[in-house]
Amino acid sequence: MTVLATSPRADRRQRRSAWRRRDAATGLLFVSPAVLGSLAFVIAPLVAVVWFSLHEWNVLAATFTFEGAGNYERMLADTSLHAALVASGWFSLGLVVLNISLALVLAVLLNQRLPGTTFFRVAFFSPVVVSIVAWTIVWGFLLQVDGGINSALAAVGIEGPNWLRGNVTAMVAVVVVQLFKNVGLNMILFLSALQSVPEEIQEAATLDGAGPWRRFWSITIPMISPTLLLVSILTVVGSLETFALIDVLTQGGPSNSTTVLVYYLYRQAFEFNEFGYASAIAVLLFTIVLALTLLQWQTRKRWVFHEV
Amino acid sequence: MVQRRTLPALVLLVLGAGALAACSGATDDEGATPTAAAAAPVDLRMTVWTANEDHLALFDEIAAEYVAENPDTVSSVTFEAVPFEDYTTTLTTQLAGGNTPDLAWIFESNAPEFVQSGALADLKPTLVNAEGYEFDDILPTALDLWSADDGLYAYPFSNSPFVMFVNTDRIAASGQPSPAELVGSDGWTFDAARDIAKASTDQLGGAGLIVRDFNYSLWENLATVWGGWGASPWSEDGTQCNFTEPEMVEAMTWIHEATFTDGAIPGPGTNADFFAGDVTMTITQISRASSLDGTFNWDVVPLPAGPAGQQNVIGQAGIGVFQNGANPEIAADFLAYFTSPENAEKLATYFPPPRQSLLNTETLVSANPLLSEAQLESVVIGGITDATTKPSHANFAQLQTTVRGELDALWNEGADIEAVLAEVCAAAEPLLQD
Fold first, then answer.
1. Cross-chain CB nearest to A271 (options B96, B268, B401)
2. pTM for this entry
3. Is residue A64 part of a domain?
4. Are residue A193 and residue A121 in the same domain, yes or no?
5. pLDDT tens, A71-104?
């Protein structure tokens, strides 16, 4: 007679495997809402947009014809799209440089132990929580030819331009309005990074004879470089997705000078009913955002302190 | 292992995307075929751009009568108010998403695009054969925009003429001649209007003459001025650009000088509203009379004459039935009821009708208590007769944006008008020939 008995080791292994399975099931259950949400609202639309971009979709005539690379070939010849890419480039460049510089300067200034800093922190952050449409409408009034800004300039003897009617001044205006809307968020991120720089390192550098500039460039900047990476990625991506501001303030004008890529995409889809072509532009926008983000991510080892 | 797990995920992804595409309402090349009348009573939906409670109450009243008379075919009619500014965008997004309404209001500027796309059902057989409909009572000129190949693809329920509203307090305060008197003496011209506008602005401040809703963006509203010069943006068949034609150059030169030389028209970037009382005159639709609150004295006169004479312009709106809607036959039957002679008279309270039998002062006087019989005769009835509509084209959305972008260069003091208009045509020609 043979006695079937499991060894204690096999028994333990079996029990551990059951726990692991239960753990895995519990884990999957917890992440499933987020995974399903991402699948339904991010991944599936993304795949659908690529699929749509291969078709000519006439909403009114209800036709959906396979075009292959037709929409992508059209992009190569579309001079308005090229102009929109240039406008997007100027807008993003202006916004990213000004936003990060100003946010850093404000964060350094408001990191001092001086009376009134809390008030200024709130003042610069508050536009972040204001509705973009309300913010833009108010700026629209200020930027009119006889609006608040030109009245203020006139008070000091300067004749201001018609801000939203000149190609260059309109671009400057949209950059500045977007800059002040979001600079507070980057400022807060920098502020929190600045406050986490250890005092003792600064003190040690001071004892070694380093001045304020030397400490800033050699200690503060490297120590906050991870935040700098985060802020630069967020700002670049945000700048390429700016839509409401353009729609409310300039509608892409004058002479299409502020028609950035995302606004051009909207126009193709929802004004011209060219959903297939708009989908191809969306794929282009996605590729640009992805490429810029990857570029920043890949170069991080060269300048981000913790990645060295 | 990773591959074994990744594969089903990818399959799921593609299936999800496919489902999304299917749900999006895109159909194959042949398009969907209209469904036959359903056996059970159906719910009809009409998109409209008015949110006015009185308008909607009247629509609901007519719809309730129709439902009561046809309980076997229709259980309800819903009027879905969509904001005016985004109306067409919202409508086409609904079509793209497969959420096609049964009926919809359509702007005249989009009329050719909708009519030629095949999206709308031919209403003529239903309307002509509807009992007591009196199809021949409808002004043929009102149907032009909505007709193609002997078919009728929308009913022009609203025909609101563009007129000149005048702030008579500002006219009197600046000692200027009354536009109403100038109309009587055949002196009511665009030049006279410009001179009055300039003089009143010089003396009283504020603004002189405003083409409402133009705002250096919606240039199609300038058609109310161009008409006096016999100018139009493109040829009747929509294939040739007319911006470089002499009459258009003259009309644009007049507008430019009135703006940047005389200051009779406020320049770009300024905010002025006739109905707030600080503007002498405004060209807008008669239906805007409801915005007058009695804070100043006013009058309403026809559009002035230009070198080519006086041209009336109307803004039209049509109601169409979507071929791909769930119930096109029932929707067309409801439309015949909604716009029957009896109901058209009720609708005339708010929307000047296209029916000749209703274009009389008796019908319109109750609808427009702010206007006198003489004003109604002169500006509403006279304004609809022989009127042209605002510019429209099968490719209007792209033309509107393209021309707007090029015209931006015109709205500067030192603009070279002919050069800018040549650029407008260079940009518009490819779209006209599409």
1. B401
2. 0.83
3. no
4. yes
5. 999 999 999 999 999 999 999 999 999 999 999 9
